[in-house]
Design brief:
This protein is α/β, with parallel strands linked by helices. The chain contains 16 helices and 10 strands.
């Protein structure tokens, strides 16, 4: 999710809305939508409103991975409180002694979205791809409503996973939310990280205060924001029920295009749909870690100076992405005695690894070439 540079409503607009009864309308509609969403989930004896299941998610992931040529294993790795992290492992004999690379997907993602990268990246070192806690096929527990505690739950789940798998150290590659968590993890467990690769990372800059004054927002946009702010980012996908799969195909046809070299059907949209209409666990945690318009409550740029100086960082952006790449330059300025490499891949948007997979794979391999 890219940070949107949109400000909050002004006091004058709020007073006008109050006079014409807008808050009451918003409250009433919000209550109706909330009741509707709850109705869709509560009655376990009724047929599911959303045409999905754990088995369908599993089958959708298998379809995503059917074009991967390398041999790999799949397993649930148990962590605390009965939770499990779904994991793909690529480790051929000739690379087993190299430092492994661990792939952390972004918000709403899963291991299947690395389909165009797994073969290339696993040729030089072991590769582990896991579904973050609360996403994909991993367990979907209740997260804290506190932003720091929710972040800590993510970080501790990664550390418990590492210990269970038996990795002494690793290269962390994170996209979007995964990049944010990669740095958070590395601050707390620096001895376990040899290199960090941030791919279009979310959550680094602060929300700019100037937006409030510089960019007036239409009243109708503020109304929608007020209406949907209590709900999870993907609640609408569950609310529409049976038409959800068609909605994904219609609203995000670009995902099909990104994987056109592998699939000509709706494999990708089916996978994305089944991942994101399950119980909204990690999705809720993410919402609790944000302020309006997708900015992080705890911006990582405020803490990046706590990261051990000896850990090199490579930051990869897409030239067509809306994510502000200025964070990369800021990280470099905050770490003058550390290696901070910044690269931009031409023709790629936010999903760099899918938009230009060959260039992306080559850049990642080059960045990690000096790691044993």
């Amino acid at each position: 999710m890219a940070e949107l540079e949109v400000g909050a409503s002004g006091g004058v607009v709020q007073r006008v809305m109050s006079v014409v009864g807008v808050p009451t309308l918003v409250s009433n509609v919000r209550g109706y939508v909330d009741t509707t969403i709850r109705w869709c989930w509560i009655p376990s004896w009724l047929p599911s409103w959303c045409p999905t299941s754990q088995l369908q998610l599993q089958n959708a992931e298998d379809m995503m991975l059917r074009c991967v040529d390398s041999t790999f294993s799949k397993q649930y790795v148990p962590i605390s409180n009965g939770n499990r992290l779904w994991t793909l492992t690529f480790s051929s004999e000739h690379v087993k002694d190299k430092t492994p690379m661990v792939l952390l997907h972004g918000f709403g993602g899963g291991v299947g979205l690395w389909a165009q990268n797994l073969d290339a990246l696993s040729q030089q070192r072991p590769v582990f791809a896991l579904d973050l806690l609360g996403f994909g096929q991993s367990s979907r527990p209740l997260f804290s409503t506190d932003a720091q505690e929710a972040e800590d739950q993510f970080v501790e789940s990664i550390e418990q996973w590492r210990a269970k798998v038996g990795l002494e150290s690793m290269i962390l590659l994170g996209h979007n939310l995964g990049g944010y968590l990669a740095v958070s993890y590395s601050i707390k467990y620096p001895d376990r990280v040899k290199h960090i690769l941030l791919v279009e990372p979310w959550g680094f800059p602060q929300r700019p205060d100037s937006d409030v004054e510089d960019r007036p927002i239409p009243v109708w946009i503020k109304l929608l924001g007020a209406l949907f702010s209590p709900f999870n980012p993907l609640a609408s996908l569950r609310l529409v029920g049976p038409i959800g799969p068609v909605l994904v195909q219609t609203l995000r046809p670009d995902f099909k295009q990104k994987f056109l070299s592998m699939f000509s059907d709706n494999t990708v949209s089916e996978y994305i749909y089944h991942m994101n209409v399950q119980s909204p666990s990690g999705e809720t945690a993410f919402k609790n870690m944000t302020v309006p318009y997708g900015w992080a409550k705890r911006p990582m740029l405020e803490r990046v100076d706590q990261l051990r100086q000896g850990i090199p960082i490579t930051i990869i952006y897409g030239s067509r992405s809306s994510v502000d790449s200025n964070s990369g330059s800021t990280i470099r300025a905050l770490r003058p005695r550390s290696h901070v490499g910044i690269t931009t891949i031409r023709g790629a948007g936010h999903y760099v690894y899918a938009d230009q997979p060959e260039d992306f794979n080559n850049k990642v391999l080059e960045a990690c070439s000096k790691v044993d």
